[in-house]
């Protein structure tokens, strides 16, 4: 009997323990590469069970380097011996099967950067998992949105030590940033930490995303961009940030600059669609999403945005049902799928069903921004203002840059006849999206209600300046302005009408 | 449903029901010809009311059915008919083709709600057949989660695609629409159909349940075992919905009928596991136990049956369930009466129990139990050798009760018992009358039918009508195929017939099969052993035959045994073997025993045969005159009421007696008191029967020849 390499497996009697170690090491990698995580785990456990002496010296380990693709010269120079590498393999195999505590435990005494990162990240993930479990029902009586990750403190202390020793690579710094963000969300140096992380290791997109989360306005963005080298990663980062900050023109411009090099890039396609969506150019966004789906039929990332587009466009219920059907078929336990189905039911006017699906999305991913926001919209439809407020507030906690949630809050408080609150939230929304006429129109109406005509006039004027204002809204704004200006200021009225 | 298709279960909604909803909407909204409206309405009512059809028709089958009902050219040749699509069929297919997305599917169901929901004068009555159907579909659609809707959509696409694609390939010019599988209305629908569809069929749980209930009703009505087509449909349901308990019940009944004990027991326990939907309601448990008693009793496992029945009685007492208690007591009586016991006291207790059962059943007006009790009483009286008057009184009471009893089996049981009793008491004609009454009835269960046929065949054989007997057995064979116990009984009867005809080769072949099959069955085991003894005697192995008969006698002679009556037969046969093989003197005690027992139990045929054999033994002691008188006394009754065989043997022995008397006269040098002609008459009479039975033909020839030699 021969294996794939053309050699026969050595019989048990003649196989030395060193050789066992070699083959097991190889097995862990090969099984893991093929997604056979349990087999990899078994091989790693068996490897770990061999005695230290049987695993061979470093010299003999060098002969096996060729099998291990991730061994670099640097690792060798830091005397990363087989024992720690084996520990790493074991820890990684536990991590792959989501046994985070176990992974952290076996890597406890490891000193290499990779092992430290894996240990720290495993602890962090274990803490996140327990935090989710303790959080209980979504918006239920025991819902605890302030549940903490209990591993954060110990991790932070440990990582502080490493930081002081100067022994942190880009990945460890990223992890440090995550921990600090949870420990002290208001800390001012979080942005700098993630910046340091991407500078040290340039290709960790998660670190770039965290950095993007720290950026709240364009000025900050420019400051950060100035500190970073002009690489393709930076371009992608810029595109992402532009879309986040709703700078559609810039975003499209940046995309066009890189698209010739990254022709089939799904990320760029998605960002294009998001930009069109943010711009309320729904037809263009729909067309881009259709191309994405055609080339990647099983994609679920960002497809919930596509469902929002179909929801907004008239007569797309059939398409929305197809989208829901496709996503259910692909993975019915993804938050995106549940958001899509929720949108479908919402489009049919079945708000209770929609809410149940959004809640399910949140059970899968408590930080799903879309689910919180859309659930808020549904509660508004059902006139459950309290629940709507809670949903929107959770949304803005997750991402303060999402104008929709702020707008939703404004709308809800307007329904509750609390204009001051409503004004505040509309202001926040319009700050994020200054060229959206809808917010200004609402602000104008509220100021009028509060008998603050000057502010009202400003708001309506601002609305009229927005490019996306539709004809009806324009007429309405003009009428309002007329009544606000009154007979005493006919010149202004004339000037306004002539414009 | 082909093997590649994934079959999912659903509560109510299936693609076929969608088609029915489409037809409903066509009825109310589309402009179709008036003459079609009525046809469509009745068609819809028929389809919706038919809850027993499984599986649901495919679209092709459904269209064919619509076509048959509504085609405007019913009388032209089939070729043209196929080409001519009715407008209804076209409307249906058009509508189905236009439903492209899951949204269209759900919208159809939701829109149909309007038919029952309009404020003023809704088109469908809320409680009409169609109204209930529409409301049910609507409610079920509201309960569906989206992935259930996806599944329904998958099934719907598969349901309509075959027909519509086929449709599109034929005669496009005749169609009002076309549908190409390659064209989609949007990229999403194309991607969805290409990557996110699977071959899906749906089984509605309500349909599966009503189909299985229907099967049970049919089983209860007609008995027997399921035909293979129905069984395959049930297997499909069972594979997908193992939680439907009635399937296990059907399997349980099937296994009981075909004699598979293990299968019956397994399915019984599965049925009782799935049976109680209300976990708080424990009342079902004692009935489950009663069924278990029936199961064990049917396969002869009395100890397990008794254990189960004791528990059933306790549960019935606990739950104060009088009805169950009575059934349980009646079964306890039945089981106990079959138990071999050693003390008379138990008999008395059993008798008391029976009397108590009858009186309680009378009080509560449980006719079935009363009748059962009376039948049991009759059986007991026969076994105890009670007077025929008492026996017939019990039988008559049972018959009167049976006239009002809802269980027809009781009536047939009574008639079969009557037939047996008359056979025992020697009235063949009446016995035959009761048996043919059972055979002639259409509702008889297979086991009772076989018993009646075997009784009739026995009667024919007793008159030497072998061909008639075999013809009857042949005719009866089809009526109980697959039912083990009935089949065994039939084979034992056939063996007996063949034995009588001395077809040794055929008997040899049957013996081997029967031996294994009869081992577990106490009653047939004894019959089998008795037949075997007769056979062994016939093939010149008398010692083995006698050993078997001794065993049977020992087994049956135990006090309390229901087979005491049959001991007379065994003694008689032993006597016959001894007469044939040894000194007839050694047969005398057996003949006398047979005589006593048969007289005690009023077993007339055995009694007279024993008398004939006694006369034969007396001949051996040169007591020809006494033997002659003995035969002369009994011959009139034998000739009037008994079998041809007995008549032939009687004539033969009588002829021997006459010969004996002549011999004595000759020896005493007296004048011959009996003319030779008087000897020839009974001899010729014997010849007719004996030739038919091939009974001791060599002996007959010997006697006949010796007679002629002596005459000469």
TrEMBL record, chain A:
Pfam family, one: TPR_8
Protein name: 4060_t:CDS:1
Native source species: Dentiscutata erythropus
Record-linked SUPFAM superfamilies: TPR-like
GO biological process, one term: cell division
Positions of the Cdc23 domain: 23-273
Keyword ATP-binding on entry: no
Keywords for this protein: Cell cycle, Cell division, Mitosis, Repeat, TPR repeat, Ubl conjugation pathway
InterPro entries according to UniProt: APC8 (IPR007192), TPR-like_helical_dom_sf (IPR011990), TPR_rpt (IPR019734)
A GO CC term attached to the entry: anaphase-promoting complex
UniProtKB/TrEMBL annotation, chain B:
Keywords: Cell cycle, Cell division, Mitosis, Ubl conjugation pathway
A GO CC term attached to the entry: anaphase-promoting complex
Coiled-coil spans in chain: none
RNA-binding listed as a keyword: no
Superkingdom, taxonomy of origin: Eukaryota
Keyword set includes Nucleotide-binding: no
Name the UniProt record assigns to this protein: Anaphase-promoting complex subunit 5
Species in which this protein is naturally found: Dentiscutata erythropus
